[in-house]
């Protein structure tokens, strides 16, 4: 992508030219990423903004030099043969994300429902294919949480802000978020109270449609007769989108394939 094209670019991911004495600034959700290139080094800084304002993804071609070099996290990358391109790739988070309902959803016995959530994406920066990314960071502020039955049985996860909800309709999709359909089946003889759901983000590949919205395959969670639940990553896409209208952006961090996983009920629903 040339610098003349870059001035008009509204998508903050892909492969970009970064020739010596060039500086690019990327706005992706809450993430501000600033990179300046020299002959044998790159200066990189980034931070997550605290404003509640929604920022559309964009890229700016900046002046050279270290003016405004004041963001929270800084790195200098050095090489005798610095690449002149960088790759920014959206990926799913590296942990499960706990999503809460505004009001408890009660699923009656032998019933099923689809709930929808839009969760933040991570962004990976790499310069050579196959190497470990130089940066792997969330595009929004997100909190750590312990999710499980008690303080000993559970896993470290991320928690969305309380304003982010599970819903019975697909969320409006914009920016650096991905819409996920979660189909929940209650095969037991008891009602299932859905206050929160743990979304297995690392097991999901990421796709993009023709207008730049992100999607994953549908997730199916089944509550069995006992206190067990099964998790499956379905072949079909969330909301039934056609595969031919989607492009794969990034593979799952931990691909389950077509396997079904059995977990304690508390591992999926708290």
What this model shows, in words?
It contains two helices and 22 strands. The protein has helices at residues 3-6, 265-269; strands at 14-17, 23-28, 31-37, 41-48, 58-62, 73-78, 85-91, 97-107, 112-120, 122-126, 135-138, 143-148, 154-159, 165-166, 177-186, 192-199, 206-208, 214-215, 217-223, 228-237, 247-250, 260-264. Strands 9, 15, 17, 18, 19, 20, 21 and 22 form an eight-stranded mixed β-sheet that branches. It has a five-stranded antiparallel β-sheet with strand order 5-2-3-4-6, with no helix packed on it. Strand 10 and strand 11 form a beta hairpin. The longest helix is centred in the last third of the chain and has 5 residues, at 265-269. 31% of the residues are buried. Residues 1-8 have low confidence and may be disordered.
